[in-house]
Amino acid sequence: MNTPALLAGLGTSAVLGGVTCIVIGLAGRGPVEPVRPPSRWPAIRRALIARRRLAVISFFAAVAVLGLTGWPVAACATAVAVLALPKVVSGRTAAQQIRKLEALELWTRRLADLLVAGRALEQALEQSASRNVPSAITAPVSSLARRLRVAQMPTEQALRFFADELNDPVGDRIAAALILVARRRGKGASALLHQLAQLVAKDVSDRREVEAARAEHRTTVRWIIGILVTFTAVAITQRSYVAPFGTPVGQVVLAMVASLYGVALWWLHRLGSSAVGHRFLTDPGKQR
C-alpha cells in the first residue's frame, strides 16, 4: 500500500468535506433581520384613513342639514359635531390603556417565573414570546424576541426598542428594570420583576376606579347629545316653531348656543379623560 498517496487522499477528502460543510452552512442561513427602530407609520396611516373617512361623513352630514334647514350655522355645527363627538363619547382609549397594563403585568410575572427557573435573561425574553402573550402586547414582545434571537441585537438596545414600541410610561419602567438586570447579571431579578408586577396591578386597579367615575361624565355628555338630536329633529319637522332661528339674528343666537354647548362638551370630555404620563427612556434611534 502506498502510504503517502493514502495520506494525500485522506487530506484532500478532509479539505473538500470541510469546504462542503461551510458552503452548506452558509446556504442554510436565513436572512438576518436589519436593525432598525420600530416604525409608527402603520398606526399613523390607519389614523389618517379613519380621519379622512370621518371628514367625508361630516361633509355630507353638513350638506344634508343645510338642505333640510337652510341654516349655515347648523350645518357648521353638525360638521364639527361629527368630527368631535366620537372621541368625546368614547372611552376606548382608556380601556385600551388598561388592557395594555394588564397584559404587561401578566407578561412581567411570567418572565419572573422563567428567571426563577434558572434561565438567562435573553433566553427568558425569547421564551416569553411563545407563551400565550396577551394580544395587547403581542407585537412588541414578538419583536423583542426576534431582535434578540435573529438579529443578535444587544440586550439593552433591544429593550429600548421594546419600550419605544410600547410607548407607555409603565412600559418604560419595566424596560428600565430589565436593562438593570441585563447590566448587573446578579440575583434578585425575579423578585424585582414580581414587585414591579404588583405595582402595575395596583396601577390597573386604581385606573379602573378612576375610569368608573369618569364614565359618569361621559353619560352626561350622551344626555346632552340626546337633547341636541331632539332639537334637530324638531327643527326639521316643526318649521314654524323654530322659524326665528332662520333670521340673521336667530343664526347669531344659534351660533352662541352652539358655542356654549361645545364648550360644555369639551369641559366634560376633559373631566372624563386621563392624562398620559411622560416617558423617561429616550428614543433608541437617537442612541449612540
As residue ranges, the low-confidence spans are 1-35
The strand count comes to 0
> Mean pLDDT, as a whole number?
77
N-to-C SSE string, H for helix and E for strand:
HHHHHHHHHH
The percentage helix is: over 70%
Model description:
- This protein has 288 residues and is mostly helical.
- It has 10 helices and no strands.
- It has helices at 3-28, 41-69, 72-89, 92-116, 121-128, 138-149, 155-166, 169-184, 189-237, 248-271.
- α3 runs parallel beside α10 and α7 (155-166) runs antiparallel to α8.
- The chain is elongated.
- Residues 1-35 have low confidence and may be disordered.
- It is a multi-pass membrane protein.
- This is Type II secretion system protein.
- Keywords: Cell membrane, Membrane, Transmembrane, Transmembrane helix.
- It is found in: Cell membrane.
- It holds the Pfam family T2SSF.
Task: Looking at this protein, list some descriptive labels.
disordered N terminus; 288 residues; T2SS_GspF_dom; mainly alpha; 0% strand; transmembrane; 76% helix
